[in-house]
Amino acid sequence: MIAIDAMMVCLDLSNIDETLVAFTRSICERLPVKKVYFVHNVKTSELSDDFRALFGDVDLGKEIEGNIADIVSEHFNNAADYDILVSEEPNTEVILADLVKRYSIKLTLLGKRMSDKSTGALGTKLLRILPCSVLVFPETARFNIGRILTPIDFSDASVHALRLSKSLSDQLALYLEIMHVYKLPTQYFPLISEEKAVKKAEEVVQEKFKNLRKRHREIVDVPYTLVRAAGKSIAERIAMELQRGKYDLLVVGLKGSNPIPSLSLGSVPTKLYNMDINTPIWLVYSEEVIK
């Protein structure tokens, strides 16, 4: 059973805040969530001298806390116990990572605007530095989640994401499907038959699925799809499958074996985050990786 002891919701004082708070309420109404922290950091290094001269000694943190309190009061409806935390630090990523550790946050909810409205630079930094799983909610996403897609590459990280997806689908009666994107060694064409290469590649993957089902009997009945990359990146194929299958949630496992935090996220999750995808993406670390 999936239960969230502590959840952090990152707000940026933009129009997406109301959507994030309302989505948080929908999560709390469907999953056991003990505590929610609505957070915002005032990046003091970005406050101009003109701002200081104009507003003087105004308690900016208190004003922002009041603004967030109004949004939470209107859209959260006391769906769970919560606190509002407003900080004034020069580095947003560092203070949020500190809050994750301080309050044992298990899941962070992060809003994402489309690329024509935001570079997404802060979001990418947060994905790399936060020591917890992250749920990315695009501004165009839907609240109602009925269909889950989980891509796997048979790594421990992707299997962990799959098992979490299965627990979530069982708990909330959702439809779950697995996908695997495979690539062919095209540099050997036409020395070998492309048709034979496809057949062999799919045989290998089918055997991997067979072994996976032997080890994890709970996923025996979960349908899966094999997709050939065919000139596209893995992330592009996943995005295309999301649109084709009209899925409401994408669950992706994150690897943490690299000792350099900036390199531990992985290229596929990074590319998926940077795409204009209308589907929420749950980027999952296992407890072992976080430890």
Report on the structure:
- This protein is α/β, with parallel strands linked by helices and 291 residues long.
- The protein folds into 2 domains: 1-143, HUPs (Rossmann fold, 3-Layer(aba) Sandwich), CATH 3.40.50; 144-291, Rossmann fold.
- It is 42% helix and 21% strand.
- It has 10 helices and 10 strands.
- The protein has helices spanning 16-30, 49-55, 60-75, 92-102, 121-129, 156-172, 194-215, 234-245, 267-274, 287-290; strands at 4-10, 33-41, 81-87, 107-112, 133-138, 147-151, 175-182, 224-228, 249-253, 281-284.
- The chain has a 10-stranded mixed beta sheet, sandwiched between helices.
- Strand 1, helix 1 (16-30) and strand 2 form a beta-alpha-beta unit.
- The two termini are 21 Å apart.
- Residues 146-272 form the UspA domain.
- It comes from Pontibacter actiniarum.
- It holds the Pfam family Usp.
